[in-house]
Amino acid sequence: MSWLDQLAENTEELRRAGRLQQNGRSAEALPILDKVLAVAADPTTRAYALVQRFGALINLGRIAELATAMTIAENAVREIPDAYLRGQMHAFAALGAHLERNLDRGVTHLVQASRALAAVQENDSETAWGWHDLAMAYSYLGFHGHALTAIEQARQVGAAVGLAPEIFAAPGIRLRNAVSLDHQGDTDGCLRVLRDIDAELTRYVSIGADHMRPGSRAAYGYSLARRAALGEETEANAAEWLTGGGDSVRTRDLQHLGHVCLAMAAGRPGQALSMLDSVPVSAEILGAAEPARLRSICHAAAGDHAAAHAADRYAFRLAAQRIDRLRDGYLDGVAARLDAQETQRDPGRYGDETLTDPLTGLPNRRQLERYVATMLQRGDRAAIGVCDLIGFTEVNARHGRHCGDLVLQRIAGVLNRVMRRGDFVARFAGDEFVVVLPGAGTAQAAEVSRRITAATNAENWQILVPGTPISLAAGWSEVGANGRTLSAALAAAAANRLPTRPLSEMT
């Protein structure tokens, strides 16, 4: 029995939308999902439809809508104790974080997706697709080894329920691995992987495999074209495989870059350069370094070796930036583990559920008071900020309490994202948040305030609460300085509140 068979309503519509998405036709799947959401009342049905709608928006590259879609899907899934739904939602959320260039959040969702899918008791075709989507997320975020492991899991689960292996061929995973090697200077390694992809395609064609997904066509086509651009002939016709493939941003960009490679292979580097200049491509499909690397190959073919060298250095620098981000994430992970160990050693400080705000997951006023009291007992001092939402009353009045809750959750996420390691964020009351910066002085508080302002202003509030502007008013003070207590510091900070601009002075 399929996972979808347990749903109380709209099963056939959801199956049809799923088949369309698997065949690269997300634009057609989206209105079906919207119709289901307009009539469905069953919570599990709605949660599944919201998760699939989130995935469709990712496929279509509608980045401005992702944050709201993810929040709504996440809230719906939270109410359903189902491991598959959690895994699928987190796999999509990792892809969404990648499109928004938030590596830290993406890695968090990868871990959560893997744990949830591993906990699924009865595997079926939906679980196989969940592993497939997790493999895609691993691959896009640069974890190629984990991606290959996840796609093998998808094949095994799929085979157990009768799905053909070519359905989960996923050539894009190895393609991204290949170009990543080339960006780091290992062109021989890149060519070895591209040859393997070509051999796999030849094998599938020879056995008459007829279950290959349309979305695989562009990846196979680009692999062939990229190999040709590096000077190797291929048996298959790259141009033929670059046709079709669906309506995703990924397919569109691979097709365009594939034709750039074919122009290079045909000895037309000038045309290839013009094509690179004429159509921008997403940096998230093959990495920001890929257009620069193709530009280097073009210049080399045209005999302009100085320009080729400069483009190669730029491509390498872009690739190195990605590696640096991964290293930073590793350091943050170690720091988080140490924080968790400290929490376990002091359960009285964090262990009581009454110390957490249930809506945002942030510490509440009670935990804030305990945290500052412990800090003052040690003789420490800190900068303390009070942040109020401007426009929140209008949100509740115009859009209702549910939208107000979503705004509070979004602000909580913004504050958590911009804090330094070791800073403390709490929901104090209503729409009021308090941040504590241990050991910080005026300069550090002003910088954090600037980051809070920039991150708040960068959020697309019009999608979440159209027609209702949202901003923050922030005020700063110090606690522990000259014997100042928490209540005195909060009062001073509240008196200093100014709308959405960093403060250069604390009192």
TrEMBL record:
Residue ranges constituting the GGDEF domain according to the UniProt record: 380-507
Residues in coiled coil: none
PROSITE patterns membership: GGDEF
One Pfam family matching this protein: GGDEF
InterPro entries cross-referenced by the UniProt entry: Diguanylate_Cyclase, GGDEF_dom, Nucleotide_cyclase, Rev_trsase/Diguanyl_cyclase, TPR-like_helical_dom_sf
PANTHER family, alphabetized: DIGUANYLATE CYCLASE DGCM-RELATED (PTHR45138:SF9), REGULATORY COMPONENTS OF SENSORY TRANSDUCTION SYSTEM (PTHR45138)
Protein name: GGDEF domain-containing protein
Native organism taxonomy: Bacteria, Bacillati, Actinomycetota, Actinomycetes, Micromonosporales
